[in-house]
Write a structure and sequence with these properties.
By secondary structure, this protein is α+β, with helices and mostly antiparallel strands. About 25% of the residues lie in helices and about 25% in strands. It is built from seven helices and 14 strands. A hairpin with a 7-residue loop joins strand 3 and strand 4.
């Protein structure tokens, strides 16, 4: 079973690239972020035409998450992150697919920091940790997949100095992410690439892709019940270099059935 995550950066703008990736790699589950469309504009029929069923949680112009499953209907278990009834941003969607609980996560960026956007990011991460703890306690095989907008360690960025003032690398952001791992979640990409140097994002500006100036912010966190089934994890880096590509590359894990 392959579980993948892909910040698509606009599902309508990247639809040909997204379908291309799905057909070439055929993940069992694909968690999408930044679909940037309202619910009624989601192109579900495009995915049905290649065998994928979908659920989605959209928002006009920005944010938005979705879960696609190959040949089966994802069974929705949670829409929106609990803990703040006033939060209307579409950043969390959760479903069950083939006995595995999967969440698609688009964590707030937090820039500029300090400020209200960074405060919102940290509050959101606190809520995520609380909800993750309830999932962990259920002892269901679970994957928390998505764009966390956190560079966990210095080894996860091409230049520490270049990103030092960014919200993605602040001690508070890293600490909140580390607390998730401390609760018992396994960072699959890091576990299988302990030396780092694995990027999932390259900015469109300053020739970042061509110079390989990237960093790792897309993560797949596995519960103990799923971590013991982990076989492989990787990044479909080549897809970032295609025409009109997202600024993120897809990330994935393979787990035993």
């Amino acid at each position: 079973m392959r579980i993948a995550s892909f910040n698509i950066n606009g599902i309508k703008a990247r639809l040909p690239r997204l379908k291309e990736w799905l057909e070439e790699t055929r993940p069992t589950v694909a968690c999408l972020q930044e679909i940037k469309t309202m619910d009624e504009g989601f192109p579900a029929e495009e995915f049905e035409s290649i065998g994928y069923k979908a659920i989605w949680h959209g928002q006009k112009s920005f944010n938005g998450v979705a879960i696609l499953a190959d040949g089966v209907e994802p069974l929705e278990t949670q829409r929106g992150l609990p803990g703040d009834p006033e939060d209307e941003q579409s950043r969390y969607l959760e479903a069950e697919v083939n006995g595995v609980r999967v969440a698609s996560i688009y964590l707030p960026n937090g820039n500029p920091q300090p400020g209200p956007k960074f405060d919102y990011k940290l509050a959101w991460m606190k809520r995520l940790r609380a909800h993750a703890a309830t999932l962990w306690a259920q002892e269901i095989p679970t994957a928390l997949a998505g764009d966390y907008n956190v560079i966990p360690e210095d080894k996860d960025v091409w230049s520490v100095r270049a990103m030092a003032s960014d919200a993605l690398m602040q001690p508070e952001s890293r600490d909140a992410y580390a607390r998730l791992l401390g609760d018992g979640w396994t960072d699959a990409l890091d576990t299988l690439n302990p030396r780092g140097g694995v990027w999932t994002y390259w900015d469109y500006k300053a020739g970042a892709w061509q110079r390989d100036h990237g960093f790792r912010i897309d993560h797949l966190l596995l519960s103990p019940e799923l971590a013991v089934r982990l076989q492989a994890a990787g990044v479909d880096k080549e897809h970032r270099g295609r025409e009109k590509a997202s600024d993120h590359a897809p990330v994935w894990v393979d787990v035993r059935d």
